[in-house]
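quick one, 264 residues, struct below
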Amino acid sequence: MAWIDLSAKVAVVTGGGAGIGRGIALGLAAVDATVVVLDRDETGAAVAAEIRANGGRAEFFACDVTSDDSVARAASEVAAKVGAAAILVNNAATMLSGGLETTSMADWDRILSLNLTGYLRCARVFGGPMLARGAGAIVHVASISATFPQSYSGAYSVSKAGVVMLSRQLAVEWGPRGVRSNVVSPGMIRTPMTEAIYQTQGVHEARRALVPARRIGRPEDISDAVVFLASERASYIAGEEIVVDGGFTRTPMGLIARPGFERS
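---
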């Protein structure tokens, strides 16, 4: 018997068309979940087709998680096509550059609407049937920026910190009704969204040197943690945050000069 088997589960992944979302969708498919890829454009359709080409079960539905109507429509279509979701992975997010003194309020609201309010919106709509059944799992993708401010990134860190607290509150309110909520917080992960950064001369080597694991993360590193939290193997884990960063956020003390305590 496989250690994790989600063959009886429908798993919805928001922002599943690329990067970490695509990795999560493929990871859920690898443990036999019926995967529903939600995205605003046809990249999601390509991911669903990729899963089906490899023998898995997947469907794509266009969805804008900042819209009540769009999320409600997608949930209705999902239920009609494959059944109600047993797993929701809140992943859709983006960032805009800019310091707090210059970020426009429109951009601030835009990021919070997608990265935070969108998570609550999807949790309510897809989590409603979970609450009615008394069973379900929600996994939210946050970031190490939820704890360590990422400067000049506008509302991004604030939105991710909000995701962590949202998950904890859902865990407390919905846990007694059978629905678990947890967070996976990625560190430095190489994705299409960050690829331009890593193409800059010297960036990859400099970043890799900061990580105890001595490599930059991959989408599948996040997927593995998400799949675990979504499964019954994590049935007694609720309101928690798993940081997946190769040990990067545990290194600050090693950056401080301490004569006599250097590596021999």
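The mean pLDDT is 96.
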